[in-house]
Amino acid sequence: MRVDVLGLQAFISIAERGSFRAAASHLNLSQTALSHRIRKLEESLGTPLFLRANRQVSLTAAGTILLPRARRIFEDLGSALNEVRVDVREGNEQVTVGVLPTVAAHCMPSVIAQGAATMVGSAPATIAFSARPSGGWRMWHSGST
To answer: Which terms in the Gene Ontology molecular function aspect does this entry carry (predicted)?
Structure first.
């Protein structure tokens, strides 16, 4: 089964706004494009989702059943995408510190050790650093591979 995500998004927007015009504006679509998405979704489901009357729309019985589930699908999808983004960001933490070479030689090893302990916590990680000719040290942390 293929899920029509754009059709569901259009359906939710129309149901929440009560009109194709308002939903099209919200989604930055033409009313024709929005109508096409809904027609395609309704054809795939085999039933109309809206009662259309004089520039106003209301949900059919099928639309009433679908709306809370469609909202939940988008909430779950949004949560899943946010979790993936957080995991990716946490796995790519990077800190850049610029110091004079004399300070780097004496202070940076302990600073790096303290920073590594703070960044890593209990998760296995790789810590790397390099001295750069400009006087900067680069330290990064990534989760285990």
So the answer is: DNA binding; DNA-binding transcription factor activity
Q: What is the pLDDT along the chain (145 residues), one digit of tens a residue?
A: 687 899 999 999 999 999 999 999 999 999 999 999 999 999 999 999 999 888 789 999 999 999 999 999 989 988 888 888 776 666 555 556 666 766 667 777 777 777 667 665 545 455 555 555 554 555 555 454 4
Q: Residue 26 is part of which domain span?
A: 5-87
Q: In this structure, are 55 and 96 located in the same domain?
A: no
Residues 43 and 110 in one domain: no
d(CA 20, CA 84): 33
Whole-model pTM: value is 0.60
| Angstrom distance (rounded) from CA 112 to CA 128 | 9
Of residues 47, 54, 55, the one with CA closest to residue 23: 55
Q: Are 108 and 122 in contact (CB under 8 A)?
A: no
Query: Residues 102, 108, 109, 115: what is their CA dihedral angle, to the nearest 10 degrees?
Result: 180
- Structure tokens of 119? 């960044």
